[in-house]
Amino acid sequence: MDTRVLIVDDQTMVRQSFRAVLAAQPDITVVGEASNGADAVHAAIRDRPDVVLMDVRMPIMDGLEAARQILADPSLDVRVLMLTTFDIDEYVYGALRVGASGFLLKDAPLEDLVNAVRVVAAGNALYAPAVTRRLVAEFAARKPSVPSRADQLTAQELKVLRLVARGLSNSEIASALVIVEQTAKTHVSRVFAKLGVRDRAQAIVAAYEMGIVVPGE
Fold first, then answer.
1. pLDDT of res. 21
2. How far is CA 145 from the centre of its chain?
3. CATH code matching the domain that covers 3-127, chosen among 3.30.428.10, 3.30.1330.60, 3.40.50.2300, 2.60.120.10
4. Which is nearest to 80 in space by CA: 40, 42, 39, 23?
5. Backbone torsion region of residue 60, taken as left when φ is above 0, otherwise alpha when ψ lies between -120 and 50, otherwise beta
6. pLDDT digits over 17-45, tens only?
């Protein structure tokens, strides 16, 4: 089944460039475009995409607010991939907190864009973990502390969360803990459920906010 993609950017040339490369893929269908966040919210409801490519800085409504509204709509089953020209941008940190699956720099190679769409559509996040960890570390360090939920996690689940925060996949977590991959997947799912997060992006934010990992670790 094709992955349905909505492209949101205030620059026409950017939208056209992204459309051209994505539409050329046999497993991806571009179902719509929008030039601001407000139109993106309407388009998401109308076009029912699987993935929204969302620019951060736009007129009328920015990408953060648009992502928040789209991801808060229970009628939508969609993932948001933020696009930015900045490798450190507090808007993107905010987007991760509201549930975006990750972010991609606009100057990344176009093949990275295609791969990111596929990864996010498959239910994963943080396709550029080193960059995302740096961003989250930068801004988590500036946020006020929040009540820790670490006491809800078992010792093994805390180990799993630390590895998730380092950007490891389920198979890499399994290798690190010397367990089978299915067990690692189960641990990750339980961590997400206990913390009330939807994916690895939010889990990493939670790990920094709770002090389970710290910037520069």
1. 94
2. 22
3. 3.40.50.2300
4. 40
5. left
6. 999 999 999 999 999 999 999 999 999 99
